Amino acid sequence: MTGLDLSIGMCFDRTFPAGAVTELARRLDEGGADELWVIEDCFYTAGVSLAAAALATTERLRVGLGILPAVARNPAVTAMEVATLCGIGPGRVIAGIGHGVQSWMAQMGARPSSPVTTLEEVIVAVRRLLAGERVSVAGRAVRLDDVALEQPPSPPPPVLAGVRGPRSLAMAGRVADGVLLAEPATPACVTAAREQAGRGADDGFHVAVFSALGIADNRDEAHRAMAPWLAGLLADPNPGLTALPWFDELVDRFDAGGTDGLAAMPADRWTEIGPIGTFDDALAHLALLAGSGVRTVGLFPSAELDVARGQLDQVLALARAVR
Hints:
Order of helices and strands: EHEHEHEHHEEEHEHEEHHHHEHEH
Largest sheet: 8 strands, parallel, barrel
CATH superfamily: Luciferase-like domain
CATH topology: TIM Barrel
Mean pLDDT: 96
CATH architecture: Alpha-Beta Barrel
Shape: globular
CATH class: Alpha Beta
Distance between the termini: 6 Å
Structural class: alpha/beta
Number of helices: 13
């Protein structure tokens, strides 16, 4: 029992068949996990409908939308759908909204000329609507004329910005209830994100992160299994890696030894990157996240559903252990 102030959940991978969401949600709910995060990536499964199914078949599980692309729906519709989810599961919804992958937005003919401005206008409008306001706005990207929800949720759910870059994080600090940081959300990345958002660890700003889960009885086995995943990230490193003070060492190790070189990293390096190694290593990673101000951790399982079903027991064990 670690007594960490963390909510622990599992992510519903975009590759999973939609029908599996009720099975996994029930198991998480009955087993004592805190959350399920449904992933909306184009062009896989849709987050709102997955969330509705998960909420309707559980009693206490919180469900996070991770994440809705800001331009895929009109903000009035986004607010209406989030409010509807809140009606299905009162107090159990976390709304994540982000830029969306810009190449996917271009495929839909919806790529904005200014993603940061667009996301800011969308988040502001959605939060105002969820708070029960009547909204008229003529912005650069959002135009609403006397719009109000007939059934606004009370209280309104937190709206998190799923962002990474400094300008986007600064915007999130101004207008969102928190941020959702994609994996790998290292403690150094979380600290940098808070600084860029201009928010402290004790000011109510909700920091949620996704973390790739890789637990095995044998630590070396876990590192070998996760080395290809880490190598894939190094092809286009995100702030979760570049914020590491030893990022250059990581690149040199991969250049010299490939995935074998990554697998042979010291265990404490892997513990910084994610809940990877033994069960105790995973707990140590969660403790580092809690120390950096994280409130919510969505654990990403394998993209293979049968493997993920087994990992769900690990998620439940971690959820129990942090209490």
